[in-house]
Amino acid sequence: MEGLAREILDLTLEHLWLVFVAMMIAGSVGIGGGILLTRKPSWRGWVLGFANVMQTVPSLALFGFLIPIPFIGGIGKHTAILALVLYAILPVLRNTLAGILGVDPAVRESAVAMGMNGRQLLWQVELPLAARTILAGVRVATVTTIGTATIAAAIGGGGLGVFIFRGLASVDTTLILAGAIPAAAIALLADGGLGWVEHKFSAA
User: Fold this and answer.
1) pLDDT digit string, tens, across residues 76-92
2) Do 89 and 54 touch, CB atoms closer than 8 A?
3) How far is CA 180 from CA 20, 143, 183, 184, 200, in A?
4) Taking a C-beta distance cutoff of 8 angstroms, is the pair 158, 77 a contact?
5) Residue 201's closest CA among 138, 107, 115, 116?
6) Which pairs count as long-range contacts for 178-182, CB under 8 Å and 24+ apart, including other chains?
7) Half-sphere exposure of 136 (CA within 13 A, CB side)
8) Angle 133-19-199 (CA atoms, 0-180°, nearest 5)?
9) What pLDDT digit, counting tens, does each position of 134-191 carry?
10) What is the radius of gyration, based on Cα positions, of the chain?
11) CB 93 within 8 A of CB 34
């Protein structure tokens, strides 16, 4: 029993690491891409289209598709993280774009009239006002990534999915629950924590 508890802890930490790395990359790319799309309207169609296509591909299939790709594919954590990033980008990208475009034009015009340049307008007006919407996208992406990360075990990515796949192979409900319960708990904690941060931004 002690050995199982230790393994649960190790795989939980591994799971958290997968999610953390994937969300750091997806958050950076999604927010940066969303900002870029507000300045490049002609790019929105194909960028959002690509992100939407990634969302429609079944998660297990996407993990499998990435394995044979040279340099970025293969078995292991790096392929799992890449797949998780591709899934997590859309909510962050879409919410960043919607949040910035949703800023009241009168507020934007007032800031320009006060002498703000494009960079100042972005950092001092648009991003603060769009922060709640952006955080909502990060929240959705994080919770989704925590669940999707359980599939990483299928390609040697580790995490709590190791228990789930092991339990399915041996028809052992205990092992399945050993992976599913911690993953669900992490998702609930992440959702609650990010929801609290989001609420603080909306109250500010």
Assistant:
1) 899 999 999 999 999 99
2) yes
3) 18, 14, 5, 6, 30
4) yes
5) 138
6) 178/4, 178/8, 179/11, 179/150, 180/150, 182/8, 182/11, 182/12, 182/15
7) 13
8) 30
9) 999 999 999 999 999 999 998 889 999 999 999 999 999 999 999 999 999 999 999 9
10) 20
11) yes
**DSSP H or E run through 146:** helix 127-148
- List, for residues 95-123, the tens digit of each pLDDT value: 999 999 999 999 999 998 998 998 899 99
Read off the tokens for 170: 């041996």
Q: Which two tokens stand for residue 136?
A: 């909502």
Determine whether 61 is exposed, middle or buried from the number of CB atoms within 10 Å of its CB (0-12, 13-18, 19+): exposed
d(CA 63, CA 89) in angstroms, rounded, equals 16
In whole angstroms, give the CA distance from residue 135 to residue 96: 9
| Cα 78 to Cα 63, 129, 139, distances in angstroms | 11, 35, 23
Q: Which two tokens stand for residue 125?
A: 């007006």
- What stretch of H or E contains 53? helix 44-56
Alpha carbons 173 and 192: distance in angstroms, whole number = 28
